[in-house]
Design brief:
heterodimer, A: 608 residues, alpha+beta, 5 domains, B: 418 residues, alpha/beta, 21% strand
């Protein structure tokens, strides 16, 4: 692929992102675009990417941003620079999505040819419209046997209000439609505006950490220019730095002399700690400071909370290090030390939502090799006490004495649920079970219905997505936004083992859900605690009131079936492990609870 | 639920005069099955049918392994386990047993046992007679269940009526020892339905031994994968305890005495002559893929390569197909002795245990043993340091827990162990 002699002029730069429902093929399409514009073979592409990932791993950088600068030569021989800006694909990261969108002039809206428009597609489209982006619909996965591009065109027309005939048909997997998409990016998405002569204003839309170079800022230059040697200021942090290097985000970082208004690239300014910067902040010229910041920064506010404990207490230091590293690139992740008498040392973590929680858990486990125990996710409640104070409580450990509580509020969401018409009954039933407040139905195209439902956030934290998929036979999807706090009847449910409270299993739940939730916990715990010399009572309690109860009999079968064809070794090793595990059991009162019991209770989704 | 412990509801089975089986055993693993059961994690490979090329390769390699391992072992039992030994071709058992005798591995006229699938005896009416002619002494039938839906769930190819036919053919052929294997604890099973199956099996004329194992779900098996996906395949542990009691009660009423946690004999002479060697730490040699061996003199356990081709290749190179060996530290042996002997009604002889591992260990656990007695889990016979610990039925049910509770820190000679 020929390289342009100098920098690509701003008229031939396009900044765009890909927005899509999860699993609609975003990363495959991104890979294809990179590959097509990189002019590399499949094999080289794979090797190159893997190489750089390994390198990143080695250096302990997180593999997160796929923002990349592509060079594309059109049929008439002009070279364009296409800056693909990565966006997280879920509502949990709505603010990150917004920040990415602010850096673009256009977006590819990817729709699965079989699944069609989903709740998240609609939500993403609204945000793109808010930022006045040029939206190019792409119907992907047309190679699937179940693909129905005509139906999807209809949905694009009726549910998104876009011109269905502008939609590009593609199969990212098979490499079909890629040229058409590149053409659409060039012809339909406008070049960036901004004046290189104005004082510098650049939006930090993301950041990476490099062990050797420190913080690497990913920036969109909105006005002015940024070049090596410049003295710049981070507006929010009010700190000055000297620019060591600016460049383009090719497969590897590629230094250039200058990034001008409209450009997307990176800047290295000798910043050592990522805590010293804020994603969404504005970079300005220290000598000629612009007066107003770009509207990019918002304090991330976690809404879902969970306690994270290492399965092996030896891993506590490792967990702390890993959380520190992850939070470098993920300012929305909050964590603070916590101690549980049952589980030892751990962290109370805050997340933007359930998906964010999943992502963090996955990365802690995969990238850092940690085995973790997570407590049931919780929301942040507002508790007013008699003394007129208002407390925010997301940790059952800090729930005030009910006797002094005046009132409690919990966060509500507006869920937008897209389902086939025939599933309305079962979905309404599911919503009612989830303490639905109000709902409104919109009948859309092709026998589909959108339900706008207001319900407590806490009610979608447990298996809501799975249940929705089940009752709609896989066709339902949902998205939500936070609404407000509303009055609620909250109780703290404790789990008692022979009368002793197991702190790690306490939960804040709505009065109505207390009994089934407590019973589910009791039963799973009873199954997982090994026999003792005495009968063990496992109870669920609200204050002094017992609401659920199970027992572990003093005698419970504990002998392995058989010694396989004389394989005594295997059985001895199992017993040795169990004997060893006994030493590490958590003592609650006179009962020893193995770590595996907590795993069993916390890992399975609650019955209610 | 009652708070009264169940431990005193039945008197324990007391040890009988049966002498300790002292002669070593020889185990032969036949790694073929016509189909793989979803719960099974033995080393097996599916086989098209008897007489196939692999069976012949197996026979030849096995004879070669006996040659490679020739030694003056003098086993008085030769046990063919599997897999499905009943798939083996005519003359196989006699040929292998004779070769073992010839190589010194077995003493002349050993007790020959084999495991069999009921349907093989149904399909071939002459099979039982042929085995009798090959001097097979005992057959362990993989009955697993008599309830048709449980048989289907367990992926078995036979029906309840096949079991009756198979047993009658073995009895008519004059096979002296007929054992039925049963698996209980499949999801939804109740003590009452289990009792029905047990009574029916125990009533089959000719059956003089029973083994009843709880279904255990092993990772890597089809059941393991289904369970990982959230399916419930086995009963919960409290229900398993109830089923264990039902097994022991029902079989006792049917005239079968428990002599091990999962094994029952119609009379002391019908105890499994071969399997008892595992529980009383008698020497045994295993041949065939994945087979395990125990050499108490050397304090060593070793086992064969698990994959058929690897096992065969080693033998063809003229090497013993051993995959791994481990030398047991006194602590390992003591733990083995505890969990194995506490599975049996003959229990643990404290005098012998003291002699082997030092009296300090027994002393250190005296209070624990008394506590077991007070909870009805064992009987303490004779002197506290030299007598016997005899597990009751409730003790057998928790034999693993008992073995785990014993404190082995006072073990003599542990420090200079490997």
């Amino acid at each position: 692929m020929p390289r342009p002699a100098g920098p690509v002029p701003i008229e031939r730069v396009r900044n765009f992102c890909i927005i899509a429902h999860i699993d609609h093929g975003k990363s495959t399409l991104a890979d294809r675009l990179i590959q097509r514009c990189g002019g590399v073979s499949d094999r080289e592409f794979r090797d190159q990417l893997l190489d750089s990932m390994d390198l990143e791993r080695e250096r302990g950088i997180t593999i997160k941003s796929n923002s990349v600068s592509l060079l594309h030569e059109t049929k008439d021989g002009e070279t364009y620079q296409l800056n693909l800006i990565d966006t997280p694909g879920h509502v949990d990261f709505s603010h990150e999505v917004r920040r990415s969108l602010m850096s673009c002039e256009g977006a590819l809206l990817l729709v699965d040819a079989a699944q069609g428009v989903e709740a998240q597609t609609v939500a993403n489209h609204f945000v793109a419209m808010e930022y006045d982006l040029e939206v190019v619909p792409v119907i992907n996965k047309i190679d699937l046997p179940a693909a129905d591009p005509e139906r999807v065109r209809e949905e694009i027309d009726e549910e998104l209000g876009l011109d269905p005939f502008e939609a590009v048909l593609a199969s990212a997997k098979k490499g079909e439609g890629i040229e058409e998409i590149l053409d659409a990016i060039v012809t339909r998405i406008p070049p960036p505006g901004g004046d290189p002569a104005d004082p510098l204003r650049a939006l930090i839309f993301d950041a990476q950490y490099d062990t050797f170079r420190g913080v690497v800022l990913l920036v969109r230059v909105v006005d002015g220019e940024i070049r090596r040697g410049d003295r710049v200021r981070l507006m929010r942090g009010d700190t000055d730095h000297v620019v060591e290097e600016v460049g383009l985000l090719r497969l590897r970082r590629e230094p250039v002399e200058v990034l001008s208004a409209g450009a997307v690239g990176y800047a290295i300014c000798g910043i050592k700690r990522i805590q010293d910067i804020a994603i969404g902040d504005t970079v300005i010229d220290a000598a000629r400071p612009a007066q107003t910041s770009l509207p990019g920064y918002r304090e991330p506010r976690p809404v879902v909370f969970s306690s994270v404990y290492p399965i092996s207490t030896d891993d506590y230091g490792e967990l702390e290090g890993a959380l520190g590293k992850l939070s470098l690139n993920d300012p929305a992740l909050t964590y603070e030390r916590e101690t549980s008498t049952a589980l030892g040392f751990g962290f109370r973590c805050g997340f933007l939502g359930l998906l964010h929680l999943d992502v963090v858990q996955e990365r802690l486990q995969r990238e850092h090799g940690l085995s973790l125990l997570l407590s049931a996710p919780s929301v942040r409640y507002r508790v007013a006490t008699r003394d007129g104070e208002l407390h925010e409580v997301e940790n059952p450990a800090y729930y005030p004495d009910p006797a002094i509580i005046d009132g409690t509020e919990e966060p509500y969401i507006r869920a937008s649920i897209l389902i086939p018409e025939r599933s309305v009954g079962p979905v309404m039933e599911l919503l009612t079970e989830r303490r639905l407040a109000t709902s409104r139905m919109n009948f859309l195209s092709s026998r589909r219905v959108e339900i706008q439902a207001e319900l407590p956030l806490a009610e979608v934290l447990f298996d809501f997505h799975d249940r929705l998929k089940t009752v709609t036979h896989g066709y339902g999807s949902y998205d939500y936004e936070l609404l407000d706090y509303r009055s609620t009847r909250l109780v703290k449910v404790d789990i008692l083992v022979n009368g002793e409270r197991v702190d790690a299993l306490s939960q804040l739940v709505h009065e109505e859900k207390a009994r089934p939730r407590a019973l589910g916990y009791c039963e799973r715990l009873a199954e997982a605690i090994p026999m003792h010399n005495f009968k063990i009572a496992i109870q669920g309690a609200i204050g002094g009131k017992i609401i659920a109860r199970t027992n572990i009999r003093a005698l419970r079968k504990d002998v392995t079936a058989r010694c396989y064809g004389g394989d005594v070794t295997r059985k001895r090793k199992l017993l040795e492990r169990q004997k060893e595990g006994k030493k590490r059991m958590k003592q609650v009162g006179n009962v020893q609870i193995p770590q595996s019991a907590f795993v069993a209770v916390l890992k399975s989704s609650p019955a209610a | 639920m009652t708070d009264r412990p169940d431990s005193t509801s039945l008197p324990p089975d007391l040890p009988t005069e049966t002498p300790e089986p002292a002669a070593p055993g020889l185990y032969v693993h036949v790694p073929f099955c016509s189909r793989i059961c979803p719960y099974c994690d033995f080393a097996v490979t599916p086989l098209g049918g008897p007489g196939s090329e692999r069976l012949d390769r197996f026979r030849q390699a096995l004879l070669k392994e006996l040659e490679l391992r020739a030694a003056a072992l003098g086993a008085d039992t030769v046990y063919f386990g599997g897999g499905t030994p009943s798939l083996a071709p005519a003359g196989f058992f006699r040929e292998v047993a004779s070769a073992a005798v010839e190589r010194g591995l077995a003493s002349p006229s050993p007790f020959v046992f084999l495991e069999a699938n009921p349907e093989d005896l149904v399909h071939d009416p002459d099979l039982a007679r042929r085995w009798a002619a090959e001097e097979v002494w005992g057959v362990s039938l993989g009955v697993q269940a008599l309830d048709e839906s449980r048989l289907r769930f367990l992926g078995r190819a036979h029906s309840a009526s096949d079991v009756a036919v198979a047993v009658s053919r073995l009895a008519e052929a004059g096979i002296p020892w007929i054992s039925a294997d049963l698996i209980y604890g499949t999801a939804g099973q109740t003590p009452d339905s289990l009792r029905e199956e047990l009574v029916a099996i125990a009533a089959l004329p000719g059956v003089n031994h029973l083994s009843a194992y709880e279904l255990s779900i092993e990772p890597g098996t089809p059941f393991g994968r289904r369970q990982a996906r959230g399916e419930t395949l086995a009963v919960r542990s409290d229900d398993a305890s109830a089923l264990f009691r039902a097994v022991h009660e029902t079989l006792r009423e049917s005239g079968f005495a428990a002599y091990e946690a999962c094994n029952f004999a119609a009379a002391p002479e019908f105890r499994s002559r071969h399997n008892q060697k595992y529980w009383s730490l008698v020497e045994y040699l295993g041949v065939g893929p994945s087979a395990h061996s125990f050499a108490p003199e050397r304090g060593e356990r070793f086992w064969n390569r698990r994959v058929f081709d690897d096992w065969e290749a080693a033998i063809l190179r003229g090497e013993e197909p051993t995959a791994e060996r481990e030398t047991l530290r006194p602590r390992d042996r003591a733990l083995e002795e505890l969990f194995l002997r506490l599975r049996t009604t003959d229990g643990l002889p404290l005098g012998g245990f003291s002699a082997r591992y030092g009296e300090a260990v027994v002393r250190a656990n005296r209070r624990l043993f008394r506590e077991w007695r007070d909870r009805g889990l064992v009987q303490l016979r004779g002197d506290e340091l030299r007598g016997w610990l005899l597990p009751t039925r409730d003790g057998l049910a928790v034999a693993d827990a008992l073995a785990r509770e014993v404190n082995l820190d006072a073990l003599a000679g542990d420090r200079n162990a490997a």
